[in-house]
Design goal:
The structure is a single chain. This protein has 14 helices and seven strands. By secondary structure, it is an alpha+beta fold. Helix 2 packs across helix 3, helix 2 packs antiparallel against helix 8 and helix 8 packs across helix 11.
Length: 358
Amino acid sequence: MKSLSFSEKLLHWYDRKGRELPWRGTKDPFRIWLSEVMLQQTQVETVIPYYENWLEQFPTLESVAGSERDELLKMWEGLGYYSRCRNFHEACRLVQNKHAGEIPTEWSDFRALPGVGDYTAAAVLSIAFQQPYPVVDGNVRRVMARLMSYGEPAPKGTTLFKEQLAKWINSDRPGDFNQAMMDLGSEVCKRYTPHCSACPVAQHCHSKQEGTVGKFPVKSVKKPRPHKIVVAGIIWRGEKFLIQKRPAKGLLGGLWEFPGGKVEKGESLSDALIREIEEETGLAVAEGKKVGAINHSYTHFSITLHLYHCRPLNGIQSNKNSQFRRWISPQQRSQFAFPRATHKLFEILESEAWRTDA
């Protein structure tokens, strides 16, 4: 009897053990593309409710292309990595305007869209259009590092892994093959507790045969993340406070927050607060009661954020960046998309019933 190939073993396992996910079972390239964008650097369990809620509001590429960015960012609020949302919006508009609403099937055309890298292009084209492009994400890198006993940190092996996967990929079911590889890493070839006895392709695994699975993937030496001290002010005008919109590009682009910024070396929190607010809004303020402080981590750095109640000293209007500033009541904040760090501050304000007394 002929022995089964790597892809045949993998697909037999996938047909029995593959995860049931909301974006599987559809060939709609828009829905597949949306899921892949949301899944970038985000756990499946986190993505599922966002994916389902998004499709209730924006079920088609046309509906995304015709929406305002602020609407989309509000739907994305809490999912993080907001450039994904901005790029997806821009890309949908380009598809609508330049490709008559049809998602490109050519690698070069789809890969050229904003936010589409090699991974997203390979995933969408293989799953939606059955094109034999192998995908390499974090799960697949771990699997391949163990299969090949790769002796360098896994990201360095991406090109080598793609070359090997291109030899293995099933030309009739390339999308299923790719999803099977990702499921294998998620469900069986786990980071800390690999279940080698349940692996359908264990016979092809060099580290399994050599008894060295625990050595792979080789870990990269991580640099310590910088920590920044940040101050912000909740500036009151009667019953309303000031919020400002971050620049469209960059970290947390397009989201709203309290005015403030980083404390410079040797600078007091109070001095930094007054300086940053004046630089950003044109308002001179008086520092009031401290609301509290929160810690928050981003991908490449962490912060301690201190919030103070403030009142303006030079009037309540400023023309500086006025299109990016709003005076809102506490009840209106649900209309705007805020970073998670700002929501942590809202939780403190709620616990104190928004008291501004000193």
